[in-house]
Amino acid sequence: MKVIFLDIDGVLNHTLWFQSEERKLVLEDNSRAKWFDPKAVALLNELTDTTEAKIVISSSWREGYPLEELTEILRLQGVTGEIIDQTPSLTFKQITPAPYIVPRGCEIQAWLEQHREQLADRLANAKYVILDDQSDMLLCQQRNFLKIDPWCGLTPTIVEKAKVLLW
Questions:
Q1: Which residue segments constitute the domains of the chain, with CATH numbers given?
Q2: H or E element in which residue 84 lies
Q3: pTM for the complete prediction?
Q4: What is the DSSP string of 4-71?
Q5: CA 90 distance to own-chain centroid
Q6: For 85-103, how does the pLDDT look when each residue is reduced to its tens digit (9 = 90+)?
Q7: Cα dist. 165→41, 92, 120, 137 in Å?
């Protein structure tokens, strides 16, 4: 199984999209706002279509929505790839009651460990890519991590690199 760990903010929605005239026109014409850049969504769809990779949500959006609702939001925004899961939200309490947030790379690694039989004979051989605008990934994930510029979001260049990682 091939997996795309998908962040949303900075990947499917980004600064240029929020500032674009196209988004303003969409908002005027449609009461249901387009949260995501249609070009970024099309690129994600191209990636899932050509590689047959499944999507696992690693975005902080998983904190605000159950998986079923988040899947519906992504569908309404045009995402066509199969969304199979979300990474666990890991926190631990220190001496103070405020939770410490575990780096996203640890959450992705926990998901990989839980699903290792489905992925490959060894995790080192697993076919996955991490699309994220944050850099809190583990050292062992660096070859599978494609850092997205939150200014412009998912680009054709990133999609081509992701295809290479997933083939």
A1: 8-166 (3.40.50)
A2: strand 83-86
A3: 0.88
A4: EEE--BTTTB-HHHHH-HHHHHHHHH-SS---S-HHHHHHHHHHHHHH-PEEEE-SGGGGTS-HHHHH
A5: 17
A6: 999 988 765 445 666 678 9
A7: 19, 32, 14, 16
